[in-house]
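name: query_chain
kind: protein
chains: 1
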Amino acid sequence: MDLMNTRLDSGFSALDKLEEALRLKNPSSLERDGAIQRFEFTFESFWKAARVWLESSEGFSCNSPRGCIRTLAQVGILDPAETVSALAMVDDRNLTVHTYHEETARAIFERLPGHAGIIRKALELMRKRNSA
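structure:
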């Protein structure tokens, strides 16, 4: 399997784990923190898949999450509103990796379903365009 499909598969696999955590009803703080951890590795898989896809399929190079998100918008994978949300997702990811505050964790957890939706849509469009 080529690198692009491997990265896309990894992105979908990570996203499935995140969505599993988000289906929990009334999660404990431990479960919430686990969902945030899943978001972190899902985000990493997503942007790295985007980087490989953009280079292989679209001929664009990006070396950072923000750069890849902006380029996904440029090629029509993300619309303007999704781009703004995806850039905010980068901020959430940076907050979860570098700091821990209870209020921040709660707020980010509340945003995870929206983040997961944007990641799923983008991965599906990349896979679809890759198959075309």
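note: The mean pLDDT is 95.
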